[in-house]
Amino acid sequence: MEPQTRRRAAWADIREFLVRAGALAALLVMLFGVVFGLYIQPDAAMHPHLKPGDLLLFYRLPRSCTAGEVVVFTKDGQRRTGRVAARGGDTVEVTDAAALVINGSTVAEPDIYEETPKYDSNVTYPLTLADGEYFILCDARAGARDSRWFGPVQAGEIQGRVIAVLRRNGI
Question: Per residue in 57-68, pLDDT tens?
């Protein structure tokens, strides 16, 4: 094979590699820009289930969430994580005795190890959620910035549902 022919073949291989690498990059941008997202848990608000530094993979496409799901959302310009406690149509109350009451029933949360204290905020109880609103609570209830602090979270503020967690201490 002539040197010029070898050079052309080498450039053809390089072009093919660059086209494939570009297609892969475009696919990754689409997947992690549209379908999935990554977020690092910044604080202990979801302790003990999520720890600071955990890498969260969340699914962006579902627009409705159910009670108990952990979501990534944006409120007051800051990205946060929390657990959906109630959704549109539900009536929520946080009592003076630090109990969470939804639709007239006290909620038993065996995986939550703290009481749910009421905050001095602009949120008044009982609170009936409109369609497209969610009441989101952090797992570490005392002092957490959640719906007891800033009120209901709108569906458009929810970035996605957490589907996988990579523990930082396992790396």
Answer: 999 987 789 999
